[in-house]
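// run 5 | inverse folding | seed 20
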């Protein structure tokens, strides 16, 4: 097994997952990941009343679990990170969770892995307790990019905050996307000729607010072309929560209640507050034209 937050499941995470699966296959063990919800830093930020210290969220829980499964992990332990877990002594963390809870036989962690109350547990303690309880500990070095720079969730958050989809894809090894169930909105898009499928995103979603060329997967056997807006809809809503609104180009589908995966292809522009609806519609006309031009040139 391995332990980590795995936000984004980037190439560094994938190296860890592939090693766990490979070792488990060779030993007849269950490849397992222990991960946490919420993110420990988000928990401590909320407890301190400092929400600005909470890390931006790269993946929804659904997307994270799907990516982990794609790398051959058969079991995920989703631990609620709360006051009880955060105050657990390192010895208790090892004995109660790893040994009694999961019968761990082999554990892979990063070289800087810390655990237990105030992150006081280290690799040396893990190895000593591994000898006591009968499990082996292996560490893995950071994975670097083509330039030797460490691949990390922090770097991925910076790329997404800038709307740098090419940079994010290079760190992920796949295009950035968000999967969520399609819900009902205010139906405003329909009234102005641009019906949208509305999906909730994490309030602290790492991706930059704005308008994107997108591909939509999961609604039909083939991907669909679209243009999407991520943000708080400042022209039509006061203090709205973040939402992902996607208009499917030249296609009408009843998507309510379905799971749709929106793959972000190209950043077009920042979210803007327009003085009136006609100005908003003119901007959307231009967004849709640019998205059609993109697919006409690059294909779907």
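// decoded
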């Amino acid at each position: 097994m391995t332990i980590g937050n795995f936000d984004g499941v980037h190439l560094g995470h994938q190296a860890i997952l592939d090693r766990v699966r490979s070792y488990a296959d060779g030993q007849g063990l269950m490849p397992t990941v222990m991960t946490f919800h919420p993110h420990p830093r988000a928990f401590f930020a909320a407890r301190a009343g400092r929400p600005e210290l909470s890390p931006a969220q790269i993946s929804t829980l659904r997307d994270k679990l799907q990516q982990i499964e794609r790398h051959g992990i058969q079991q995920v332990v989703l631990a609620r990170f709360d006051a009880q877990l955060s105050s657990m002594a390192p010895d208790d963390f090892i004995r109660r969770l790893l040994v009694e809870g999961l019968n761990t036989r082999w554990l892979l962690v990063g070289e800087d892995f810390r655990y237990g109350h105030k992150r006081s547990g280290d690799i040396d303690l893990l190895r000593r307790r591994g000898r006591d309880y009968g499990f082996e500990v292996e560490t893995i070095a950071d994975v670097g990019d083509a330039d030797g720079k460490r691949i990390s969730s922090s770097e991925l958050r910076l790329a997404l905050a800038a709307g740098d989809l090419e940079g994010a894809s290079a760190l992920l090894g796949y295009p950035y996307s968000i999967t969520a169930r399609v819900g009902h909105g205010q139906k405003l898009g329909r009234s102005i000729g641009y019906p949208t499928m509305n999906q909730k995103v994490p309030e602290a979603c790492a991706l930059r607010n704005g308008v994107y060329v997108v591909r939509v997967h999961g609604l039909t056997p083939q991907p669909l072309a679209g243009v999407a807006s991520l943000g708080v809809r400042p022209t039509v809503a006061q203090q709205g929560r973040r939402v992902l609104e996607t208009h499917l180009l030249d296609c009408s589908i009843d998507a309510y209640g379905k799971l749709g995966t929106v793959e972000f292809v190209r950043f077009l522009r920042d979210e803007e507050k327009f003085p009136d609806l006609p100005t908003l519609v003119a901007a959307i006309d231009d967004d849709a034209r640019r998205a059609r031009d993109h697919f006409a040139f690059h294909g779907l």
